[in-house]
Amino acid sequence: MFFAGLTSVIAKAGLKNVSGDTGLAIRTLFVFILVWLNILLFNSLKDFENLTKKDILFLALSGLTTSLSWIFYYKAIKIGSVSEVALIDKGSILITLALSFIFLNETFTWRILLGALLIMAGIVVLTWK
């Protein structure tokens, strides 16, 4: 939670003199390097043998949606307020919840429903003009 919150503020500061696309490209380069270092240091290369074509397809689709999300996010924080953009971005939990129930058959409980309603209410309150 701390690093995710810090990420947006640091990114906004780094976009002072460049476009969102350039900032995202630099950020992604560092993410790429650090993820591969993590794999190499912790000997996770063996795990690649477990991948199926279906796994690769879903991970590729996840990469595509992540890329689109990051592109739009960086464009938005370049021109807008980080606090408002991050709020909208974190609202994605509501979409995640709905899709996890529909496609992954995850358990739907009254606590999850209440939490989702409170998140939605919080978004409405914080964005109310």
Tags for this model:
2 domains; 78% helix; 129 residues; 6 helices; flat; mainly alpha
Describe the structure.
- The chain has 129 residues and is mainly α.
- The chain folds into two domains: 2-80; 91-129, no CATH class.
- Helices cover 78% and strands 0% of the residues.
- It has helices at 2-14, 20-41, 53-79, 82-90, 92-103, 110-127.
- The radius of gyration is 18 Å and the shape is flat.
- It starts with a helix and ends with a helix.
Element-by-element helix/strand order: HHHHHH
Count of DSSP-assigned helices: 6
**Structural domains: how many:** 2
Shape: flat
Q: How many beta-strand runs?
A: 0
**Helical percent range?**
over 70%
C-alpha Rg (nearest Å) = 18 Å
- Separation, N- and C-terminal Cα atoms: 27 Å
Quickly give the structural class: mainly alpha
Q: Strand count, sense and closure of the main sheet?
A: none
Average pLDDT across residues? 93
- What is the percentage of strand-forming residues? under 5%
Poorly predicted segments? none
Short summary of the structure?
By secondary structure, the protein is an all-alpha fold. Helices cover 78% and strands 0% of the residues. It folds into 2 domains: 79 residues; 39 residues, no CATH class.
